[in-house]
């Protein structure tokens, strides 16, 4: 159900909906789940009676103001204390369609890892069949599994591993792209800057994702002329630091670490092969989407949102993910 006047929705309204979700969803989830506590992002997109408390139950995301959509991940990760929610899935689908449909007149056309981003999103949404809730669906699933080659099945069934290893390069790629006025794509400094901890001179090479994230947050208002990006990155970082177990990001024993340091450590653990099966791709995808929305101009975003919102709810086009079929 869509709330009238969604284009006038304020952040206070978003926060109230999230607060109601956090008030009611944990107890509903306890009735749904039994057993030992889980870690990281093991619970995703379950339906357990929480639907009425979701953002997508209140309005069509495509009708929200651009300013709200740009910082929506700050609120979406608050839901992670329960699970990765359907609100995030809908937001990723909308981001995918905005990026895909704006091709040819978007700044992201110059991003070398744009195809990496669309691959990341396709991995989030890839599935084979539906739960066999009736005989028709069950027969359809049997046909799908009989027709789909075994390697494709294995690829889709192991998409969590794909997401784990793909999300960090895409994040680093979009951060480097956002910082291109001061750092080249190889990570070499071209304009002097400070990341809030130390200064960097031209010619210095930067390989640390933590430094890049700190640099983007600190320099977005001045060197990049994007003050709202700085505010939203700061708030996203602070929310990651507030996450409690089992979704905790910042290790309590490392007092000097902040959210960006911890995301960098997560990246190192995965990409150096010292630990497998780490599920943080939803957190990283929300951060990637936040940056993408800030890099695109208001006119392009408004135009594409109006077009998407004007389509019939189930008017599906090739290469379109929004709204998800769930």
Query: Radius of gyration, rounded?
Result: 20 Å
Order of H and E elements: HHHHHHHEEHHHHH
For the largest sheet, list the strands in their spatial order. 1-2
Helix share bin: 40-55%
How large is the count of helical segments? Answer: 12
Give a short account of the largest sheet.
Answer: 2 strands, antiparallel
* Mean pLDDT metric: 89
Class derived from helix and strand content: mainly alpha
Low-confidence region ranges: none
Polypeptide structure, described:
By secondary structure, the chain is an all-alpha fold. It has one domain. It is 52% helix and 1% strand. It has 12 helices and 2 strands; from the N terminus they run αααααααββααααα. It has a two-stranded antiparallel ribbon. α3 (86-101) packs antiparallel against α4 and α4 runs antiparallel to α7 (159-178). The protein is globular, with a radius of gyration of 20 Å. The two termini are 15 Å apart. 36% of the residues are buried.
Summary, kept brief:
The protein has twelve helices and two strands. It is mainly alpha-helical and 326 residues long. α7 crosses α8 and α9 packs antiparallel against α11.
List the helices and strands and how they pair.
Layout: H1 11-32, H2 66-76, H3 86-101, H4 114-125, H5 135-147, H6 150-157, H7 159-178, E1 193-194, E2 199-200, H8 209-219, H9 227-242, H10 259-271, H11 281-295, H12 298-310
Antiparallel strand pairs: 1-2
Helix pairs in contact: 2-9, 2-11, 3-4, 4-7, 7-8, 7-11, 8-9, 8-10, 9-11
């Amino acid at each position: 159900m869509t709330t009238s006047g969604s284009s006038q929705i304020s952040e206070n309204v978003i926060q109230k909906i999230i607060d109601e979700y956090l008030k009611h969803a944990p107890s509903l989830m306890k009735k749904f789940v039994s057993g030992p506590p889980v870690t990281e992002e093991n619970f995703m997109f379950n339906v357990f009676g929480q639907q009425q408390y979701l953002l997508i139950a209140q309005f069509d995301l495509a009708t929200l103001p651009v300013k709200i959509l740009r910082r929506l991940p700050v609120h979406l990760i608050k839901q992670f204390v329960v699970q990765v929610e359907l609100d995030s899935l809908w937001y990723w689908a909308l981001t995918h369609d905005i990026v895909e449909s704006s091709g040819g007149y978007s700044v992201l056309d110059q991003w070398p890892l744009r195809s990496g981003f669309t691959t990341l999103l396709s991995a989030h949404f890839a599935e084979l069949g539906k739960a066999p809730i009736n005989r028709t669906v069950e027969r359809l699933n049997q046909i799908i599994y009989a027709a789909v080659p075994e390697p494709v099945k294995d690829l889709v069934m192991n998409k969590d591993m794909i997401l784990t290893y793909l999300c960090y390069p895409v994040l680093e790629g979009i951060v480097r792209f956002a910082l291109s006025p001061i750092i080249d794509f190889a990570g070499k400094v071209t304009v002097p800057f400070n990341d809030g901890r130390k200064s960097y001179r031209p010619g210095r090479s930067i390989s640390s994702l933590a430094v890049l994230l700190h640099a983007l947050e600190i320099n977005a208002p001045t060197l990049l002329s994007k003050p709202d990006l700085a505010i939203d990155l700061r708030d996203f970082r602070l929310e990651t630091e507030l996450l409690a177990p089992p979704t905790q990001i910042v290790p309590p024993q490392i007092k000097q670490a902040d959210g960006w340091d911890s995301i960098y450590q997560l990246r190192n653990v995965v990409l150096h092969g010292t630990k497998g099966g780490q599920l943080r791709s939803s957190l990283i995808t929300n951060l990637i989407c936040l940056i993408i929305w800030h890099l695109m101009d208001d006119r392009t975003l408004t135009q594409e949102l109006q077009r998407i919102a004007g389509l019939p709810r189930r008017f599906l086009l090739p290469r379109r993910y929004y709204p998800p079929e769930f």
